[in-house]
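Q: Sequence in, structure out?
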Amino acid sequence: MALTDEAMDKIKAMIIAGELVPGSRLPKEELLAAQLGLSRNSLREAVRALTAMRILMVRQGDGTYVSSLEPHILLETLSFASDVSQGQTALQLIQVRRLLEPQATGLAAALLTPKDLRELDGILTRSKSAATVEEFVAHDIAFHTRIIEAVGNPVLSMLLRVLSTSTQRARIVRGSQMRRAVDNAHRDHQQILDALRARDALLAASAATVHITAVEQWLATSLTDAPEEPLTG
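A: Exactly. Output:
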């Protein structure tokens, strides 16, 4: 095992054992290095890596602290992996999204307020007239995010954002004729919104399933055949 990995494991073991609790400050570098039997260089490398993973956070001039360790914060570190995913990995991410998001959309049917529904309608209006891929993707994400956030589970919200980042969505749009992708997505979004307005959880979940499955099928086809035009997520 590399020295840095060993140092990371030792710090994580202290957190798991409760010796370092969320929000607590790590001992001074020389003391912690001696306590763990590590060189100060290995400890520094471990702290840098754990900071990148959002397990630790460095406050300039104050020291290094354990983060809140809330799952939705730790999940943020997975966004890069989603951004760079292609091929089978991208398809697998969409498959997981298909398993989770429709159920969340169904739950949202009973939780969205009239104001939420008006906001969703406004997002759809703006998305239909999007002039660029980036503009459309921003509205697309806003639509799905607003629905999922109504469920009130930040872990679920972050997980679904990780499963389908703006970079990944933009890649899908660029793999198609944008105007048709926008029209298809708007049609699906409108069906989802209509079901949410009707407070029909089953219909909302079904509409979301159809919508995400279309993206999944396009990705699967694009791995083996000439790509068709996806219904953007």
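The chain has a mean pLDDT of 86.
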